[in-house]
Structures are given as structure tokens and as C-alpha cells.
Specification:
Layout: H1 3-40, H2 43-57, H3 66-90, H4 95-102, H5 105-116, H6 123-140, H7 153-179, H8 185-211, H9 213-221, H10 223-246, H11 249-255, H12 258-269, H13 277-296
Helix pairs in contact: 1-8, 1-9, 1-10, 1-12, 2-8, 2-10, 3-7, 3-8, 4-6, 4-7, 5-6, 5-7, 5-11, 6-13, 7-8, 8-9, 8-10
Length: about 300
């Protein structure tokens, strides 16, 4: 099995755990306050990961290049913007429908990375990505009350914009990792992660200090829970960035759809929720698409 496959699956599993931990913080901190926890409290762990990488490899931290700095900055800011748009969707009555638009990200990443990073993309790989994405759409889209609900311009445009920004963040992080000119994949991924979290933490600290000090102080008061969420976030990001260092952004973000399966299995076996036929069919399509993608990588 390709190493990047194991790395992406570990990242997806860790992100599922982070989302579960983050959801509990939302009630006390609000959505924005809970979101910034992953950056502020994740940064110290990312620094530790970088230190461990230097010890394990014996390599020095690579010098930043204009390309790596530019792409990482784009990725960091795009991720913040995408998260903000996702928060808007969470307040929408059409959340169940518009969530599906977010899952178009792998297709956007595949096309964008091919144009901006010259990542290889052929017909079979694009078809596999489309099948996997279709599986998530089947799982996410509930029958609309009215025929036009699914294509309502507001939720559709917001969802597509969020998906595009999430895709841009993946492309930016991949470009940031590959833009470093020295070191192996471990040290380059760890360095880019620390840089991105520094940028995101700085931006959000300034924002919250001006507009939402209550949530900022609240996250500091419950530092134990915040640290746990920050660790899971940094751990998941570490493996995402390792994936970006090993293979194309499209491959990583397509395999990231496995997070949907992990969430469904968690709901089924931990919370005892039943799995509807529609979601079972979507999971089957998703697994088929991922299998086809892996076949194209042989």
C-alpha cells in the first residue's frame, strides 16, 4: 500500500475525533471561538512535531522560499475564509443540502492543482474522484421539500465558494510544502504546518481581540479541553501535510472523504443510530471511487 494512503486515512480519523471534540466547545465558546482553538492551541503541538522531526531525521529546518511562503499564506488565509463561510452555512435552514456542495472540493482541487501546480491528472483519476464525490453527495443530499431547494442560489453559491476556498487551501499547502528546496518530506511538511498555524493564529488573535474577546478569554479559561482539541487538530494537520508532501493534493483530499465514512460508523456503533439506505448506497459509491483512484496510482 502507498504510504500516503495510510497517512491520509490517519488524518481523516484524527479529524473526525477533532470535530467531535470541537463540537462540545461550540456550546460554551460559540462557533468562532471553538474554531480558533484548533489554531491557537494546535500551534504548540505543531512546534513539538517539528522539533521531533528534526531529531528523527537529523535535518535542519529548511529555509523559507518566496514560493513556499506565498503558497502557505494563500492556503492559511483560504482555510480561514472557507471556515467562515462554513459557519454561515451552519446557520442556514438549508444546511443539509448546502453541506453537499462542500463535498465538491476534491474535484475543484484536482482541476485547480493541475492548473496551478502542474500536478498530474488524467481521465481515469478524474473519473475516480467524480465517483467518490458523487458518493458523498448521495449521502449528504436529502430530498428537497420543493424541487428548486437544492439549486437555491444563496446556499449553492455559498457552498461552492466554501468548497473552492477549502480546495484553494489544499492547493496552497501542497504548493508550500513542495516550494521548500531542502529536506525530506517529513521536515518539509512539519515546517509548512508550523508556518501556516503561525499565520492563522496571528490573524485570528487579532480578529478576536478586536471583535470577540469574550470567546478568546473563554477558550483560555477551559484550557484543558482546548488543549485536547488543539492536539487532535495539530495531529490531523500533521498527517494532512505529510500527505501533501508525498502525493498530489487531489489524491489526499479525495481520500479525505473517508472521514464521512468514519463519522457514519461512529454514529452507528457509538451512538446507536441507524444507517439509512441512501447513506449506505453513498458509502458504497465512495468506497468504489477511492478504490478506482488507488488503481490509477499503481
Amino acid at each position: 500500500m502507498h504510504l500516503w494512503v495510510a497517512v491520509a486515512l490517519i488524518a481523516a480519523a484524527a479529524q473526525t475525533g477533532r470535530n467531535a471534540a470541537q463540537s462540545s466547545l461550540t456550546r460554551s465558546l460559540g462557533t468562532v471561538g471553538a474554531t480558533q482553538v484548533r489554531f491557537l492551541f494546535g500551534l504548540p503541538f505543531a512546534v513539538v512535531f517539528l522539533a521531533l522531526a528534526t531529531l528523527a531525521t537529523g535535518e535542519a529546518i529548511p529555509a523559507l522560499t518566496p514560493r513556499s511562503l506565498a503558497f502557505t499564506t494563500i492556503g492559511a488565509l483560504a482555510q480561514i475564509g472557507a471556515t467562515a463561510l462554513m459557519l454561515v452555512l451552519m446557520k442556514s435552514q438549508s444546511f443539509a443540502v448546502t453541506t453537499a456542495w462542500l463535498k465538491t472540493e476534491p474535484v475543484i482541487v484536482a482541476l485547480g492543482a493541475a492548473l496551478l501546480l502542474r500536478d498530474p491528472l488524467d481521465g481515469p483519476a478524474l473519473a475516480a474522484i467524480a465517483v467518490a464525490t458523487a458518493g458523498v453527495l448521495v449521502m449528504s443530499v436529502k430530498p428537497a421539500r420543493r424541487p428548486g431547494d437544492w439549486l437555491a442560489p444563496g446556499p449553492a453559491l455559498t457552498g461552492l465558494a466554501a468548497a473552492a476556498l477549502f480546495g484553494l487551501s489544499a492547493i496552497g499547502f501542497r504548493g508550500g510544502v513542495t516550494g521548500l528546496e531542502s529536506g525530506g518530506f517529513l521536515i518539509r511538511a512539519s515546517t509548512t504546518l508550523v508556518l501556516s498555524l503561525c499565520l492563522q493564529t496571528s490573524v485570528l488573535l487579532i480578529w478576536m481581540a478586536i471583535f470577540d474577546r469574550k470567546a478568546l478569554w473563554g477558550s483560555l479559561k477551559i484550557w484543558r479541553a482546548s488543549l485536547g482539541t488543539g492536539f487532535l487538530g495539530a495531529f490531523a494537520s500533521q498527517f494532512w501535510f505529510l500527505g501533501f508532501a508525498m502525493t498530489t493534493a487531489a489524491n489526499v483530499r479525495t481520500l479525505a472523504l473517508a472521514e464521512v465514512i468514519f463519522a457514519q460508523l461512529l454514529a452507528r456503533f457509538w451512538f446507536g443510530q441507524k444507517l439509512p439506505l441512501r447513506q449506505g448506497a453513498g458509502m458504497a459509491l465512495l468506497v468504489l471511487g477511492v478504490g478506482l483512484l488507488l488503481q490509477t496510482q499503481r
